[in-house]
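Dock flavin-adenine dinucleotide; give full complex structure.
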Amino acid sequence: MRTIELLEEQLPSGRVRRDAETRRAHAHDYWAFEAIHDVAGNPTEPPPAVVFPESTAEVSKILEIADAQRTAIVPYGLGSGVCGAVRPGGEALVVDVSRMSALLDLNAEAGTARVQAGLNGAECERLLDERGFTLGHFPQSIAVSTVGGWIATRASGQLSTRYGNIEDLVLALEVVLPGGRVVNTFPAPRAATGPDLREIILGSEGTLGIVTEIGLKLSPKPAFKAGFAARLKSWDDGLEITRELLQTGWRPAVLRLYDGLEAQRNFNDWFPEREPLLLVMNQGSEVMHGALDLELAAARHACVSRGGEDLGDAPLQHWLGQRNHVPSWDDLLGNGLVVDTIEVSATWDRVGALYGKVTEAIASVPGVLVASGHTSHGYTTGVNIYFTFVGSSKEEKDQERLYSAAWAAAMEATIACGGSIAHHHGIGRIRRDFLPRELGDAGVEVLRSVKKALDPNGIMNPGVQL
Ligand SMILES: Cc1cc2nc3c(=O)[nH]c(=O)nc-3n(C[C@H](O)[C@H](O)[C@H](O)COP(=O)(O)OP(=O)(O)OC[C@H]3O[C@@H](n4cnc5c(N)ncnc54)[C@H](O)[C@@H]3O)c2cc1C
């Protein structure tokens, strides 16, 4: 391919890789649908080459050449996305930014840092921790995802109720657009300079440009963590407790409500029977100790006054110990189990009905054994629900059918109940057909116009989102 030759000529040596192993490793992300085909021995076609830029100038050169040659480009962080947003096929080139992984600057007075987009999430947190700070962004995939990937997917961390989601933690962005133009947003604490350019890029899943640098808002490294778990009388009690605490103004870092099935599955030592569980944790600097003690007291009171039982902090320690476990698709599919998670959100007035309808809709799909849910990211106006389904099927085509039907059932029921179809994993390919139902015709037109303006030749991650 002419584009590959031009890149090899114009970039320093070693940037373009065409070996089979590198190409295979970049054929797709962590989407369960791809795993079904891999395990069955029918893997997706790999890209013809993978490019590893080491600077913004090199990313700019890549997008200049690719745009002129009309060659499709798929940006790549660490491939932990779960919605099929990375699938270059035999035509598109992958641009893997993982060699751009430096902490460029840390301003202790302003409480800000600037990093390159390919920085591994766990490494980012380690570098900040060494200097007395935290970003407060802890997705379960922290060790296998990049800061740039978090921006591109609008990610959420496990402590988001306290620190915010990734959009709350981004001070500024540097983005390279098709053709090679570099856009830098201004690092102000707030600005009234028209629409916020950061918001156009957040969640764009590589369809508009390549994020190269990120300014981050930091918090002081916490001195302590404290919390408890409560056994509750009902799931609805748990939703009410969560709502009351958040609407009162409390912001515990962790406020996770598990339904009976998930409590039993994940906390079996304390939950031999199916009963709902609320996990509460806060953390902070020494000077905040008093305020955070009050916060936990308020949460305990809310649970106990509804007949809940305080189980102390042992279940919390158990969760902290295993919370970043990354499951292996091979093990699950090898045993004939089709498993996935689906995260949606809804306002408080809708979320109770939504939980019931979505679990019922998924469970009614032939082959699905169980559907369950927990909440993990709360707001004054509502909460997310993270559904998990497990289905049984040994044959590739049937696994594919079961998987797609479970997703479609969850999306249809979410839309029918007035929820949003995606809380923090993005759209990719799995939600693509449902996105217009949430955005409406006018909304779709706006997004298409933005795409056309920034990427007139349509080279950025075709097939994803719209
Ligand atoms: C076990 C597991 C647990 C997870 N837990 C969470 C969780 O708690 N919270 C959460 O939010 N997500 C979670 N995820 C999903 C995933 O980790 C996130 O979507 C993550 O943000 C993806 O980052 P990545 O660097 O791996 O991106 P990739 O998978 O490489 O790419 C994801 C998308 O972003 C684009 N992209 C990547 N880098 C750039 C860039 N520099 N510029 C432009 N576009 C780019 C890609 O083209 C693609 O569209 C989990 C995934 C797994 C497998």
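Observed: The CA atoms of residues 106 and 113 lie 4 Å apart.
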